[in-house]
Design brief:
The protein is α/β, with parallel strands linked by helices. The protein folds into 2 domains: 152 residues, Aspartate Aminotransferase, domain 1; 263 residues, Aspartate Aminotransferase, domain 2 (3-Layer(aba) Sandwich), CATH 3.40.640. It contains 13 helices and 16 strands. A hairpin with a 4-residue loop joins strand 2 and strand 3. It is globular, with a radius of gyration of 22 Å. It starts with 9 loop residues before the first helix and ends with a helix. The structure holds pyridoxal-5'-phosphate (PLP). The site of pyridoxal-5'-phosphate has 15 residues, from helix 5. It is found in: Cytoplasm. One of its GO terms (biological process) is biotin biosynthetic process. GO terms for molecular function: adenosylmethionine-8-amino-7-oxononanoate transaminase activity; pyridoxal phosphate binding. Pathway: Cofactor biosynthesis; biotin biosynthesis; 7,8-diaminononanoate from 8-amino-7-oxononanoate (SAM route): step 1/1. Belongs to the class-III pyridoxal-phosphate-dependent aminotransferase family. BioA subfamily.
């Protein structure tokens, strides 16, 4: 492999002006300058190539620059990159809404588009509160969310994240107050949820859950019967069940949507990330007939009052339609299951490494969980030396590759994960 060389000239001004995410700008190592992407490869300015183990925060599900998506973007860019959605509509948005309605379980068929996952969560919160106001339950304004949850970085979404372990802990006191409970996967946590609903049920608007996999909270898996239990509790207490499928949607866990693994229809579902195949930002909040019905009225006051400037951006909608065509044409779900099988075998040797707490795989997700992630910068740069782009965080070293990654590339990633974790454990 090529050795790192001098950074490109543009990176000098980046250090002065570009404020990076989740980053102590003073002490962090310089970000890697990227020249281009192709398939599962990230090409750096000095010519080095990295195999991408995380599909850009698990959203580039078909790999980068998929020609079908690029074509859709180019054609749409020539016709109409953007037009406002207030009072205007266009075919890419209409096609996307119909496709999503066909694909989603039950009668989830009323699609509200927006520009990012966090905003899709905000939209779901507003939708739920207004739903209750318009069905004569105006006291229902609080939400239940689970320990280890991650629902986004905007302030409403932050109030739903784990209040202690999330990266938002230092804002506590400045956020909406919600109820945080353990995931109801055992008798004790199920009683806690039941008790809370019995005691505060009439003030609760909805329960947010990341179905089957909690992502940024540490790649934690739970059994699909949690969803069945939650559905029945929500029904019993008139509370909306809101599925945040930003991370789990579009095949990542081996089924199209996390809720499919329990055959449950939530009242509202939030989608994003892989929605456009990771090519451009877009998110959606989709409601059932019953939720939508509460807004259907002769009274203009009952309209849903939200409308991001770039709502339903035609470029993003065209990319999303192209991505959904790829899901129809190509065996993405089988590929996700094949990743699970292969990673389960290839990551298994990590179980015997000291300081490794757990090794687990589900669909296109492979996780090595450790006792405590120290030497993080050194660990990340070791992976780059191995030719792998991977970004361990929290207590996990994980991969969420493109679902159509070639076996050889996946093997390279898995072997590097085991080898580097082993080295790290002795530092
Ligand atoms: C990524 C993510 C979000 C936030 O989406 P953004 O597009 O980054 O705002 C919310 N919830 C979950 C589960 C996510 O994985």
């Amino acid at each position: 492999m090529l050795q790192p060389s001098r950074p490109p000239e543009w990176q000098e001004s980046a250090a002065d002006h570009l404020w990076m995410p989740y980053c102590q700008m003073k002490t962090a190592p310089s970000p890697l300058p990227v020249e281009s992407t192709q398939g599962v490869r990230i090409r750096l300015s000095d010519g080095r190539e990295l195999i991408d183990a995380m599909a850009s925060w698990w959203c580039a599900c078909h790999g980068y620059n998929h020609p079908h998506i690029v074509d859709a973007l180019v054609q749409q860019a020539q016709r109409m990159p953007h037009v406002m959605m207030g009072g205007l509509q266009h075919q890419p948005a209409a096609d996307l809404a119909r496709r999503l309605a066909d694909l989603l379980p039950g009668d989830l068929s009323h699609v509200f588009l927006c520009d990012s996952g966090s905003v899709a969560v905000e939209v779901a919160m507003k939708m739920a509160m207004q739903f209750h106001r318009q069905t004569e339950q105006p006291r229902r304004k609080t939400f239940i969310a689970f320990d280890r949850a991650y629902h986004g970085d905007t302030t409403g979404a932050m109030s739903l994240c784990d209040p202690v372990r999330s990266m938002h802990a230092e804002f506590s006191g400045g956020l909406l107050e919600q109820i945080h409970l353990p995931i109801p996967e055992c008798d004790a946590s199920r009683s806690a949820l039941r008790d809370t609903l019995q005691r505060h049920g009439s003030t609760i608007a909805g329960v947010f859950i990341e179905p089957t996999v909690q992502g940024a909270g540490g790649m934690r898996f739970h059994d699909p019967d949690v969803l069945t239990f939650l559905r029945s509790q929500c029904d019993q207490h008139g509370v909306l069940m809101i599925a945040d499928e930003l991370a789990t949607g579009f095949g990542r866990t081996g089924v199209m949507f996390g809720v499919d693994s329990a055959d449950v229809t939530p009242d509202i579902i939030c989608l994003g990330k892989s929605l456009t195949g990771g090519a451009i930002g877009l998110a959606a909040t989709v409601a059932t007939d019953r939720v939508f019905g509460a807004f259907w009225s002769d009274d203009s006051q009952n309209a849903f009052m939200h409308g991001p400037t770039f709502m339903g951006n035609p470029l993003a909608c065209a990319a999303a339609c192209a991505s959904l065509e790829l899901f129809e044409r190509e065996p993405r779900l089988q590929q996700a299951k094949a990743i699970e099988d292969q990673l389960s075998t290839w990551l298994k040797p990590a179980e015997s490494i000291p300081r490794v707490v757990d090794v687990r795989c589900k669909g296109g997700i492979g996780v090595i969980q450790v006792d405590r992630l120290d030497h993080l910068d050194r660990l990340r740069s070791r992976f780059v030396e191995e030719g792998i782009w991977i970004r361990p965080f929290g207590d996990v070293i994980y991969t969420t590759p493109a679902l159509n990654i070639a076996s050889e590339d996946l093997k390279t990633i898995a072997d590097a994960m085991v080898r580097v974790t082993e080295q790290w454990s002795t530092w």
